């Protein structure tokens, strides 16, 4: 029944996708990244109701003034910064440990046992690529667009994955299609949610 459990995450992603357009952008994002003061105040009112948010707005303006001289670093500059190495090592260990979770899917897809470690390594590389790619485009497109696109892609990929796993006994080539779909799901998850 693991396939029902896998499908449940697609249902949750679909629910989040349906409700996400009704939520405003983050007020700090609107003010600090987009420099939209009116949009920031509107988002505050939509999130917290009617009221006076000048204190919070002033705090954001102070933060903007403090960070004005601060250079925003890209991914390669962050990787060169020695002070973030402990956090990067922790994140990499977490990503590598997550790879043990996907072995059951690969066994269910009836892949040869000798291929499964290489497929698992491919999943790790897909996660790393998606995280680096997302961190470099998030400022350009914003969180909302990446979340909506990511959830939509994840839901579509899960439907295709479930179909390919159900039909993999009849069509052998669908086993490899399942692996590709898992890679695409991981990339969509890394770029979006």
Description:
The protein has 193 residues and is mainly alpha-helical. The protein has two domains: 68 residues, no CATH class; 117 residues, no CATH class. The chain is built from ten helices and no strands. α8 packs antiparallel against α9, α8 runs parallel beside α10 and α9 packs antiparallel against α10. The longest helix is centred in the middle third of the chain and has 26 residues. The protein is flat. The chain starts with a helix and ends with a helix. The mean pLDDT is 79. Keywords: Membrane, Signal, Transmembrane, Transmembrane helix. It is a multi-pass membrane protein.
Describe the structure in brief.
With 193 residues, the protein is mainly α. Helix content is 76%, strand content 0%.
Tell me the distance between the termini.
25 Å
How many DSSP E strands? 0
The gyration radius over C-alpha positions equals 21 Å
User: What is the ordering of alpha helices and beta strands?
Assistant: HHHHHHHHHH
**Percentage of residues in DSSP E strands:** under 5%
Segments where pLDDT lies below 50 for 5+ residues? none
Number of helices: 10
The profile of the biggest β sheet is: none
């Amino acid at each position: 029944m693991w396939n029902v459990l896998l499908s449940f995450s697609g249902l949750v992603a679909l629910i989040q996708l349906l409700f996400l357009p009704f939520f405003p952008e983050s007020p700090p994002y609107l003010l600090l990244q987009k420099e939209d003061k009116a949009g920031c105040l509107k988002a505050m009112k939509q999130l917290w109701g009617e009221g006076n948010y000048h204190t919070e707005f002033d705090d954001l303006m102070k933060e903007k003034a403090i960070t004005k001289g601060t250079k925003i670093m890209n991914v390669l500059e962050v990787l060169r910064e020695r002070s973030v190495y402990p956090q990067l090592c922790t994140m990499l260990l977490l990503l590598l440990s997550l790879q043990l979770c996907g072995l059951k899917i690969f066994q269910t897809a009836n892949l040869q046992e000798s291929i499964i470690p290489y497929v698992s390594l491919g999943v790790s590389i897909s996660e790393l690529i998606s995280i680096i790619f997302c961190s470099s485009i998030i400022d350009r497109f914003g969180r909302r667009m990446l979340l909506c696109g990511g959830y939509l892609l994840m839901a579509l990929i899960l439907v295709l994955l479930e179909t390919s796993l159900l039909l993999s006994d009849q069509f052998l080539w669908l086993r490899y299609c399942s692996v590709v779909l898992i890679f695409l799901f991981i990339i969509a998850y890394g770029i979006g949610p």
